[in-house]
Amino acid sequence: MLFEKDPVSENERALGEQGSNDSNARRGQISLASSPRPRKAVLKASSGFQIGSSNPPTIAGRLSGPTGGRWDSSLSLLTSRFLELLKEAPDGIIDLNIAAERLKVQKRRIYDITNVLEGVKLLEKRGKNNVQWRGASEAEALAFANSTAAINKAADAANSAAAAAADAVIASEIDLQQSEYKALE
C-alpha cells in the first residue's frame, strides 16, 4: 500500500527549524508547532480504491465462492458444518474435542459457535466438553413449518373473504346512492 502526504509548507518547515533550540526539544519532546500538520492520506490499494472515494470496494471478488478463499474458513460455514455434526450425534450430544478434530479447526472456533448457540438457548452444556442440542428437532421444525403454512393459507382465505365483503358493501352503497338519486329526479 502507498500513502501519499501533501508537501509541508515553507512556514511549517521554518517553525520546525526554529523550535529545535527549544528546551522541550532538548528533553526529547516535540512541540505541536514544530511538527508538520497531518495531511489527509490517500490509500492506493491494488483495487484502485482511494480513501474518501465515493466508490467503496466491494466484497465481490474477494471471496471466491463456496470452494475457496476466505469462505472455507468463515464462521458461517463452520457453524453449518458443526450443526451437521450435531444432527449425526446420538441424542444430539457431541464432544467439542471430537468436533474440533473432525472439522479440522481450532477449539476456540468451536467455542465461538457454542457460546452463541448457548446464548440463544439452542445448546446446553452437558459436562466439561460436551454440549447437547436443545432446539427443535427436524420433525418439530417440519411440523411447525406445515402449521405455519396452514395458518398463512387460512389467513389468505380470510383476507380474500374480507376483501370480497368490503367490495360488496361498497357496491351496495353505490346502488343505494343511485336509487336515492333516481328517486329525487
Instruction: Please tally the helical runs, counting DSSP H or I stretches of 4 or more residues.
Output: 6
Q: Give the biggest sheet.
A: 3 strands, antiparallel
pLDDT under 50 segments (min length 5)? 19-26, 42-65
Number of separate strands: 5
Mass-distribution shape: rod-shaped
Beta-strand percentage range: 5-15%
What's the average pLDDT? 71
Distance between the termini: 87 Å
Q: Roughly how many Å is the radius of gyration?
A: 34 Å
CATH superfamily of the domain at 73-133: Winged helix-like DNA-binding domain superfamily/Winged helix DNA-binding domain
The sequence of SSEs as H and E is EHHEHEHHEEH
User: What structural category arises from helix and sheet content?
Assistant: mainly alpha
CATH fold name of the domain at 73-133, please?
A: Arc Repressor Mutant, subunit A
Q: Major sheet: order of its strands?
A: 3-5-4
Please name the CATH architecture of the domain at 73-133. Orthogonal Bundle
CATH class designation of the domain at 73-133: Mainly Alpha
| Multimeric status of the protein | single chain
Helix content: 40-55%
GO cellular component, one term: RNA polymerase II transcription regulator complex
Protein name: E2F/DP family winged-helix DNA-binding domain-containing protein
Biased composition (Basic and acidic residues): 1-15
Family: Belongs to the E2F/DP family.
